[in-house]
Amino acid sequence: MSSDPDICEDYYTRGRPIVKAKIVVVNPETLRQTTIQKDLWIDTGFDGGIHVAQSHEADITMIGVDLVSGTLGVAGGRTEPTHRCLAYLQQIGDYELPMPGIEAELILHGSAPHGLLGLDILKHWIVRFDGPNEFFKITSSSSQPQR
Amino acid sequence: MALSAPQTEVATFEEREFTTERFSLPTTIAQENYEFARSQRLKPDPSVDTAGRYFLGNGPLRSKEILEKIEPEEFHFNLPWLPPNAIKLLNKSKKGPITEKEMITLMELIAERASEHFQLDVGKFVAMTFHGRVVEVSDTRVGLLKKLQGRKHTEQIFVWRIGSNAFSGRL
User: What interface predicted TM-score (ipTM) does this complex get?
Assistant: First the structure.
């Protein structure tokens, strides 16, 4: 029914809509970059960009990027201190996004093995969840959604 | 007493401009109160011959010593507008590490005072120093991070979403 170009689609992993992603952080002064490949949980309850484990901080600071302090609201209503920087989402599933990728907030926090893909990224696409069949599909559309 | 700006306050063009404006403003009520209290404290009692010396408590002190000991209770020259709790936490952080809870409290206090002072709109994304100076403002998270990217700051900064308790997170 839809003619929107497909970006990716897949079945849930362990009951969750999880997608592989490639995230790149660039030092604009030296153009050195680091790549993070991560499984991201598509999370419509998270209003930020991309959330990955704090352990990736070393990869980013190693290329000379300064992380910015800030806070993150977590489950249960608590607020926790975090670090963040600008990153580029360059690949989702097997789909390579046009260079340089989608600019995104990259939050470094916690130690979860998977990351989160939040609404600040999802706002670029149409995402459909088929709950009974545990299936999701991400499509791109330049047209405005019908209300 | 002359006000002097710390070296860190004159690092960037915007900050220099802001600093100049701040110190060209007329004296605030807090400053006037402090000056009045100071003059009252240092004023010699005309009924007593002090022989050119000021008295504090039981022992005579030179005026220079008194000046060194004066510590205004509510007015901090470097941080005249931050709440006392924020200044306490700032001072504590300079002496050693503070807890995560204290760090969040500090950011909340500074962001709240700065957003009131600069009348920042709810929902704006702001980067500010721990002394409450606004470094950048943007309508979006990414917009703010792009503005900050690659810039070196003489002071540590943090990002905040005005009217929210977190820059991003669980809805």
Answer: 0.89
What pLDDT, on a 0 to 100 scale, did the predictor assign at position A87? 97
Contact A84/B150, CB-based, under 8 Å? Answer: no
| pLDDT tens-digit map of A60-108 | 999 999 999 999 999 888 999 999 999 999 999 999 999 999 999 999 9
Domains and CATH numbers, chain A: 6-139 (2.40.70.10)
Which of chain A's residues have a Cβ under 8 Å away from the Cβ of B167? 48, 70-72, 82, 84
Any chain B CB within 8 A of the CB of A30?
no
Domains of chain B, residue spans: 10-69, 84-161
pTM of the model: 0.72
B170 contacts in chain A (CB < 8 Å): 45-46, 73-75, 77
Distance (Å) from the alpha carbon of B2 to chain A's nearest alpha carbon: 34
Side by side, the strands of the sheet bearing A6-11 are: A6-11, A135-139, A126-130
